[in-house]
Amino acid sequence: MDQFFDFDWRLGIDGLSIGPILLTGFITTLATLAAWPVTRDSRLFHFLMLAMYSGQIGSFSSRDLLLFFIMWELELIPFILYTAGGSVFLLLGVLGIGLYGSNEPILNFETSANQSYPVALEIIFYIGFFVAFAVKSPIIPLHTWLPDTHGEAHYSTCMLLAGILLKWERMVWFGSIWNYYPTLILYFLPG
């Protein structure tokens, strides 16, 4: 039976992702211990902490663009109201990369990264990724959700936000630039 999307549960660890995976485990453990005892809605709190942790590990180790998007959204469940707008741009960029140039969409990282795209299309895909990462990183002027989140969230959640999520966004952003937009590097980097 033919699948419309070549979606597989592909996970792997490389030299770039091993550090953040270990840091995620360490900080999540500290944040969970620091939150003890949670007195209000402890089941919901621990569910959201586990969802964020699972999404973080999944997004660091995913080797499939659609799985990456799903894990990205999973780890941001507690902040979904703030960051849903940026997700639309990421989804459009992921689908654009997956749908370009073949009758069957390909969402495998390695296959997609080795495919060449016209410069104009590469710029359009990059803008989608850039807006998504700019909202979630956050970059001025799209940073207005961050102070509210730090003010309203539990302090252990703030540990995860400041210790992992904000750094992770930038790592993934720069990793996607090198992998998917090599032509843009030639045009926009000095030298």
Account of the protein in words:
The protein has helices at 18-34, 42-61, 65-75, 80-99, 109-113, 119-136, 145-152, 155-180, 182-188. The chain is mainly alpha-helical and 191 residues long. Helix 6 (119-136) runs antiparallel to helix 8 (155-180). It is globular, with a radius of gyration of 17 Å. The chain has 9 helices and no strands.
> Uncertain segments of ≥5 residues (pLDDT<50)?
none
- Major β-sheet annotation: none
Q: Label the structural class.
A: mainly alpha
Shape descriptor: globular
Mind telling me the C-alpha Rg? 17 Å
Helix content: 55-70%
Residue share in β-strands: under 5%
Number of strands: 0
- Reading the helices and strands in chain order gives HHHHHHHHH
Q: What is the distance, rounded to the nearest whole angstrom, between the alpha carbons of the first and last residues? A: 50 Å
DSSP helix count? 9
How would you state the average pLDDT, rounded? 76
Which terms would index this structure?
69% helix; mainly alpha; 191 residues; 9 helices
What order do the helices and strands come in, and which of them pair?
Blueprint: H1 18-34, H2 42-61, H3 65-75, H4 80-99, H5 109-113, H6 119-136, H7 145-152, H8 155-180, H9 182-188
Helix pairs in contact: 1-2, 1-8, 2-3, 3-4, 4-6, 6-8
Short précis:
This protein is mainly alpha-helical. The chain has helices at residues 18-34, 42-61, 65-75, 80-99, 109-113, 119-136, 145-152, 155-180, 182-188. The relative contact order is 0.15.
